[in-house]
Amino acid sequence: MNFLSHYYFERANPDSNMVIGTVLPDLVKNAHKDWNFYPQKKEELFVADNSLKSILKGWKRHLEVDVLFHSSDFFNHHTAQLKQNILPILKDSPVRPSFLAHIGVELLLDHLLVINRKIEINSFYDHLNNVDDSKLALFLTRCDAAETDHFFKFLTSFKSSRYLLSYQKLENISYALQRICMRLWTHPFAEDTILLLTERLEIYKVILEKDYLEIFDEIGLKLH
After folding, report:
1. What InterPro entries does the entry give (predicted)?
2. Which of 54, 85, 94, 170 is 20 to 30 A from 126 (CA-CA)?
């Protein structure tokens, strides 16, 4: 799941440290694609400090949600269906249809949460701004992050741009997908392919919207 879908499960949580923890694995990967941290395997480094403990709790929640989502019938069904939907427009693209369908379903879920007002994006950013950077830096250091300056430069930009507000428009989902694909392929799409992708996403959004909340309800019932 993507940022806003993870936030959905914490939308009523007043603990900003836990909220940022639920999206921190993705923030870390966006800032440093080669960073691989496993703080859940050394909990003793975090539990003595309440802020670090909350961040770790959020981190573990992120992992739990992703496992439940990616093993669900909902995920398997909709990624397979979206893959078939977008296959005709990818014949001249190096992008793997299964990869694009996977990320596409996740971003469509974020989009649907926003347009149907199931979450408040500005509240999400308020939580991020409430977190003490020194505590976050300490958490990352205890994860063996050798250099955190680049991460905080990315985080500052992520917060100030309020980029996720753009998810209100479907065409921005297509450009977000292009940027994600550019991490793996230098030229993932031609400009006309992006327009066609938006059209396909618009078609599939109507299908997904019929039952998209079911996966959030299903996961919510299983969370510890």
Report:
1. ACP_PD (IPR007431)
2. 170
